[in-house]
Predict the 3D structure of the following.
Amino acid sequence: MNPPAEPGMPVQAVDTPALLLDLDAFEFNLEALDRSLAGHTVRVRPHAKSHKCAAIARAQMARGAVGVCCQKVSEAEALVDGGVGNVLVSNEIIGERKLARLAALAGRAQLGVLVDDPQGAATLAAAVAAVGTRLDVYVEVDVGAGRCGVAPGEPAAALATLVARQPGLHFAGLHAYQGAAQHLRAPEARAAAIDTAVAGVRATQTALARAGLHAAVVTGAGTGTYLLEAASGVYNEIQPGSYVFMDADYQRNLDADGAPLSTFRQSLYLLATVMSRPRPGRAVVDAGLKAHSVDSGMPLVADFAGARYTRASDEHGVLELAPGTELPLGARIRLVPGHCDPTVNLHEWIVGVRGGVVECLWPVDARGAFF
């Protein structure tokens, strides 16, 4: 598919709808993460499910990240093909074809995966035995998110013991991600959720010690809480993902003073064009459900204070305009996606811009990689 832009063209010439990346804000966010972690001894393993882009993953690793996370085998394949040599598939993998691909990929890169069930551990061991590779395996502990994961304490330690005994599997540590905490708006609510997560990790570490095991890595955390995990004394690796882009939903998280969190800047936008002015007070843009995700709410309209994106259909987005506000046909507007991760997955290209000019185009290497 033809890209929506070429390096050197002005932003106003970019075809729409298109993902724009403000490179100054993106680079600020990379640096801001490093600054915020000063004094903390944690490794950074950013989550690539946010960007699905090998170029961004390589930029993160160039700044010291030990590797990246992803969620699917096909994502891992795309990243490894793109030159990323250390990937944690932070998910359980079930299914003969997926396991065979995962085991084969472990021969090309340092690869990790999660397990939360004895049968899952056995199938992983069988897959690597078939091709003679080796996997780092992390026991996923449910520390409060109520999704995947074995219970903290003795159940997690029992599973770790089983993993450690399987040929071809290396018990690498614990995965303790509290995903439900990332978008709790109040800082005290986020802190309470992570306190519970930390308690679960500590209970598991105690049980592991009784079993004669040690979790060399305790990994987890996201953009909304990573500083809490970094300060906990039990996590030694963090997995923020959305920090590189941000989105409308993360902008709703508050700091201790009740103001929106300001550590990171909005860098990702959806560029859209006004395609219709059906009546005064309304404009329609060419970015609908097939161009961005609304699972976390409608996008925000950047640059035009008098416009609100109120509803979306497949190929259309309706803007309601404040009295006296008009947008001409052909006007370009930037939208702040409600949820950056699934929005990126809808696009082939990320258009990097600086100073109003297209500087680069990065392919979304793992677009549609959900198997």
Notes: The two ends are 22 Å apart (CA to CA). The chain has a mean pLDDT of 97.
